[in-house]
Specification:
single chain; alpha/beta; seven-stranded mixed sheet; 13 helices; 7 strands; about 40% helix; elongated; binds adenosine-5'-diphosphate; binds magnesium ion
């Protein structure tokens, strides 16, 4: 047995944004934003004026607020993309502009969902993103919410269950040769789930080739089997769905997921439509976890 020695333990520390300029300076140098001489000048200026390193650098015009945000993000291992750096499309603002107001709002939605899920088993960590009409922002919100969950380190899976107007493969720059439709029809397995290399904890199951019988496929027992297999591998599973006014598919997906988040969009969704969607979901035993107003 190993005896505990008197040698002090080396405590590993993680950097925090307020832990002094040196680390931020080093990260900015690593990122090629400044050279060491700049860092020294900034440090001196910061000391003289009682400023933090980042603030001083910005004041001196040597770095931008964006540079600082990026290095701080990296300190937290926060995945974050530069335009053109990946096949992930620009609609995924949570990856490209994580500090924007819109993404702040998405994180608030994430918090609400997490609060409701506290203490629940994995079944309750699934949510279908539903809405009444086309172009209300379901796909957009599903994609961005999936990214903000993954940024928390939650193993996140986004399933494109819109087998009519599939879009997640386009949004994330993935192939759609196989996906949910091929799994449900027994022609593929979970290996067709694709990791998004640039976003550490995120995986996407594209819709796959659009089938002639989406509703029948979504009602098959193979969907339930797939979900119970996935429950062990992912902390959070989000489902993109077709518009409720187009087909009953969304009810089938929401029923399998057990929970739904209803999206409404200003100047598009009528209150009566939203009401009947919520009633329909509740009638089929789906928990309506919340509603989100897309006001863009
Ligand atoms: N909050 C938003 N901000 C900017 N663009 C948005 C927003 N919500 C939706 N869009 C855009 O509106 C269009 C329709 O959204 P989409 O998510 O495809 O709708 P749905 O999946 O409900 O049919 C897309 O081009 C999408 O990028
Ligand atoms: Mg869509």
């Amino acid at each position: 047995m190993n005896m505990q020695s008197d040698v002090p333990k080396v405590v590993s520390t993680t950097l925090s944004p307020s832990s002094g300029g040196n680390q931020i300076g080093a990260l900015l140098i690593d990122a090629g934003k400044i050279i060491p001489q700049d860092a020294e000048q900034i440090l001196r200026y910061a000391k003289e004026h009682g400023l933090r390193f980042g603030e001083a650098g910005i004041k001196m015009g040597l770095v931008t607020r964006d540079d600082i945000d990026r290095v701080v993000a990296r300190q937290f291992d926060y995945t974050y993309l530069l335009p053109g750096e990946s096949a992930v499309g620009s609609e995924v603002i949570a990856a490209y502009s994580p500090f924007s107001q819109q993404v702040e709002a998405l994180r608030a939605v994430r918090s609400q969902l997490l609060l409701r899920w506290v203490g629940e088993d994995s079944v309750h960590r699934r949510v279908a993103i539903v809405s009444a009409n086309r172009r209300e922002g379901r796909s957009y919100l599903a994609a961005n919410l999936a990214v903000v969950f993954s940024q928390l380190g939650e193993r996140t899976l986004l399933v494109d269950a819109d087998l009519r107007h599939a879009r997640q493969h386009d949004i994330f720059g993935l192939s759609n040769g196989s996906g949910l439709s091929t799994i449900l029809s027994g022609r593929a397995g979970v290996e067709v789930i694709q990791r998004i290399p640039a976003l550490v904890a995120l995986s996407v199951l594209p819709a796959g080739p659009l089938p002639p019988n989406p509703q029948e496929l979504l009602n098959r027992g193979s969907f339930a089997t797939l979900l119970s297999d996935l429950a062990k591998q992912y902390d959070v599973v989000l489902f993109d769905t077709p518009a409720a006014s187009q087909a009953a598919d969304c009810q089938a997906v929401a029923a399998r997921a057990g929970g739904a988040m209803v999206v409404t969009r200003v100047n598009r969704t009528r209150l009566s439509q939203m009401k009947s969607l919520v009633e329909g979901l509740a009638g089929s035993g789906v928990t309506v976890i919340g509603t989100v107003l897309n006001n863009q």
